[in-house]
Amino acid sequence: GSFGVLEALATLAFDYPPRAPFFRKELEQFLLMARENGVSPLSIKGSYAGAMGIPQFMPSSFRAYAVDFDGDGKRDLWNSSADALASAAHYLQASGWQRGQPWGFEVRLPSDFDYALADPDQRRSLTEWAELGVRPLAPTGAAANARASLQLPAGHKGPAFLLLDNFRSILKYNNSTSYALAIGLLADNLVR
């Protein structure tokens, strides 16, 4: 982003009542981050909401999860792809990401499926979903006892997905189902 992060956070902290407490905490974290890194708070650019660098970390996330992966002695999420990718990976790992497990996968539903089960709060083991006739379109590599919820992002006529714990880790990074689905599907296509 091209906005001054200090100005963006200060504006939201005092002129946006619904989320002012959140942005006040982020403003404090931002000032601490700038001091810890020996950078002028006026020089840091980001989004209109204070998100910074390639992974769009808020200041509290920067302080908690940013890493120096390229070994140059600084955590640079603006100009170092290595630092940005490693920091995003560190965030996901801290959010419960389970290495070697999928985020989810597309499934085929039986013709008599009860669509009331397509609810994020209805978590069942993959074995239980299979007993209900839910079948993956391709081998998944997921443990049979892994718990998943069913998502129908385009309604009952669109694709269906079983979403595992790694999907929930992506949601901690960005709490948008559409975002998390896009990231998961993109990642699957990059691995192929």
Task: Give a description of the structure.
The chain has 7 helices and 7 strands, in the order βααβααββαβββαα. The chain is of the alpha+beta class. Helices cover about 40% and strands about 10% of the residues. The chain has a 5-stranded antiparallel sheet with strand order 4-6-7-3-5. Strands 1-2 form a two-stranded antiparallel ribbon. The radius of gyration is 20 Å and the shape is elongated. The model has no long low-confidence stretch (mean pLDDT about 95). It starts with a strand and ends with a helix.
The sequence of SSEs as H and E is EHHEHHEEHEEEHH
Structural class: alpha+beta
Q: What is the residue-averaged pLDDT?
A: 95
Assembly state of the chains shown: single chain
> What is the straight-line distance between the termini?
31 Å
Q: Please, how many helices? A: 7
- What general outline do the C-alpha atoms trace? elongated
Largest sheet: 5 strands, antiparallel
